[in-house]
Design brief:
By secondary structure, the protein is of the alpha/beta class. It has helices at about 80-85, 110-120, 195-200, 210-220, 250-265, 280-295; strands at about 5-10, 15-25, 30-35, 45, 50-55, 60, 90-95, 135, 140, 150-155, 165-170, 180-185, 205-210, 230-235, 235-240, 270-280. The protein has one domain (about 5-135, about 180-295): Ribosomal Protein S5, domain 2. It contains 6 helices and 16 strands. It binds zinc ion (ZN).
Length: about 300
Amino acid sequence: MARAVTLTGVGLFSSLPSRVTIHPCGEHPRGLVLRRTDLAELPAVPARVGHVITRPRQTVLCADPTCPGATGAISTVEHLLSALTAAGITDAFVEVGGAEVPLMDGSSLPFLEAIEQAGRAAVPMRGGEAGPLVVRERIELRDASGQMWIRAEPLTEGDPADALVCEYWLDYGAGSPIAPHRASFALLPGGASAEAYRSQIAPCRTFCTDAEARAMRAAGMFSHLEPKDVLVIGPDGPVDTAERLPGEPARHKVLDMIGDLTLAGGGMRWIVGRVTACRTGHAQNHAMATAIVQRFS
Ligand SMILES: [Zn+2]
């Protein structure tokens, strides 16, 4: 980052106003590091899998994930991390003025645009830098039913060199208003694929079915949201909105994968390989990020 940039909005889960300021790394620790500024004297949190608390539908970071009550946790970091990685930002100090990164429009485009406005800057080497996390052999994680899986494999001949290829197969089964579809994206280091990410992945919003939206509202969640604020898909298609791109849900899943897999290297270590997932969510992405660190560090 060449200079600091601030975004303001509302948290998806908290419905509270929040702001996030992305600073150049400067004298702060290397990598992508976050700190809450609304509570006094909270430690900074590296964006790494060892600091993840897995909760439904979001990625949460905490300096001490085992701490009862998760004091100082920062929720919904995945879209911001996705944009930082796609833009080629390996080092940044992110201040969050609340418990949650603002949802913005449910996509990563506002974050990407802000980061691009600020511009990239070279980060001086400090010694001790580690190389990329290269997937050298296949890892596959499946749930007990075998229907939900995520796998990492080495790049194949047709893949761009040094890419992290993320592919998502969305299949909610018969009866779902969302028909099965896939999305794939080849992410390149150093922001080399940022333009393609901006047009193909970044605009794709958080989504749910209208039945899920009704259930969550009945449980008192998301009452601050209008249908147009997220992509709600009913039997007749999107409610009060239109898909920004064909197959927007699977593309958003790829957006989430990129953000969650960033937690393997915390910004500084790039994953080289191909990750494919089917019917998975954040918990499986976190498990894969952990497996990649354990196997290929
Ligand atoms: Zn998401």
